[in-house]
Amino acid sequence: MQPHPSSHLRIARPSRDLQQAERFWTEGLGLQVLYRTGPEAEGGHALVMLGWPEAAWHLELVDDPQEHTPPSPTDEDLLVLYVGGPLDPHLIDRLVEAGGRRVAARNPYWDRWGVTIVDPDGYRLVLSHRTWP
């Protein structure tokens, strides 16, 4: 079997503060908790999986309070969501209130076509008003 267009995609990232990161993605962006486990899970790390139930992807955040594998995002580590229309300014406000920080993109393309928000672990979320494809 090979991957195909409907294969589910998991994006996994370490987090310094799982509660703070969860708040950003749920209260800010509106993702739902799809699954959660504590440190008793296989591997010894608490984690939370966030997404929309009908989406073909989800975001897994793994607790790493001791920073054995600290988040190390760059300005080009982007999670881009194409919303297909004007961005709701209340959404941007919610993301900031939930612990995000609006920043200028390293690549001006993203400032032209959207808004870049840094999450509590330093990863960048781009909300593009364009559509894909």
UniProtKB/TrEMBL annotation:
<dbReference type="InterPro" id="IPR037523">
    <property type="entry name" value="VOC_core"/>
</dbReference>
<dbReference type="InterPro" id="IPR058998">
    <property type="entry name" value="YycE-like_N"/>
</dbReference>
<dbReference type="InterPro" id="IPR058997">
    <property type="entry name" value="YycE-like_C"/>
</dbReference>
<dbReference type="InterPro" id="IPR029068">
    <property type="entry name" value="Glyas_Bleomycin-R_OHBP_Dase"/>
</dbReference>
<protein>
    <submittedName>
        <fullName>VOC family protein</fullName>
    </submittedName>
</protein>
<feature type="domain" description="VOC">
    <location>
        <begin position="7"/>
        <end position="130"/>
    </location>
</feature>
<dbReference type="Pfam" id="PF22659">
    <property type="entry name" value="YycE-like_C"/>
</dbReference>
<dbReference type="Pfam" id="PF22658">
    <property type="entry name" value="YycE-like_N"/>
</dbReference>
